[in-house]
Write a structure and sequence with these properties.
This protein has 200 residues and is α/β, with parallel strands linked by helices. It is built from nine helices and five strands, in the order αβαααααβαβαβαβ.
Length: 200
């Protein structure tokens, strides 16, 4: 990454949350997957093994378990927030491992910084509070902000640019998921995996 991006006050940073602000090996996503299995098991009247297989199939087919559950009518649109709240609302403070390399860089970034996440605000706030990182960001865009349109759909990016009157060339997007990065790049955004955001 060009170091000039860090000092460019015109740049606007959109930062993913899960597996980006904390390390992927934290084990948090495994617990989230288990909680998804419990919810799917309850809604589909199947055992946990079947629910786990269904979760993997949904993710494979739709690149997002929540979208898959909606499209396959496992849940209704009005049940989506309840589903996401159940999945994300637990105490993970003892297992989360901060991505200090990225967090330290964000402390010196001159441009505005926003959380840009497919999660709900409850989960985002819990993560930021656990990492003591809320003060680093100028705002939060969650799945409700996106009208439940999940990345890698282009809608969240286009909505952000329209609402803030920001051109694509001024946005720096950081995310751990390749499909999300590809979507951002297709719109002309500068997109980086967290490991690419370095001072070297």
């Amino acid at each position: 990454m060009n170091k000039d991006l860090l000092t460019d006050e015109k740049s606007v940073w959109l930062i993913d949350l899960d597996n980006t602000l904390y390390k992927q090996d934290a084990g948090l996503m495994e617990i989230i997957d288990q909680r998804i299995d419990y919810y799917i098991s309850y809604k589909s009247r199947c055992d946990l093994k079947e629910a786990g297989m269904l979760r993997e199939k949904l993710f494979s087919n739709y690149q997002n378990t929540f979208i898959g559950a909606l499209n396959e009518k496992i849940i209704l649109q009005q049940e989506l927030y309840e589903f996401m709240k159940f999945v994300h609302n637990f105490d993970f403070s003892s297992i989360i491992v901060p991505n200090n390399d990225l967090l330290n860089i964000l402390k010196v970034v001159k441009g505005k910084k926003y959380i840009f996440s497919n999660s709900i605000r409850l989960h985002i706030d819990n993560v930021l509070n656990t990492l003591n990182a809320a003060c680093l960001f100028d705002g939060i865009y969650d799945i409700v902000s996106f009208s439940y349109k999940f990345k890698p759909d282009s809608y969240p990016f286009l909505l952000f640019m329209k609402q803030n009157t920001i051109e694509h060339k001024d946005i720096i997007f950081v995310d751990d998921t390749e499909t999300n990065l590809c979507s951002a790049r297709s719109l002309g955004l500068r997109a980086f995996h967290p490991r690419e955001v370095t001072l070297n």
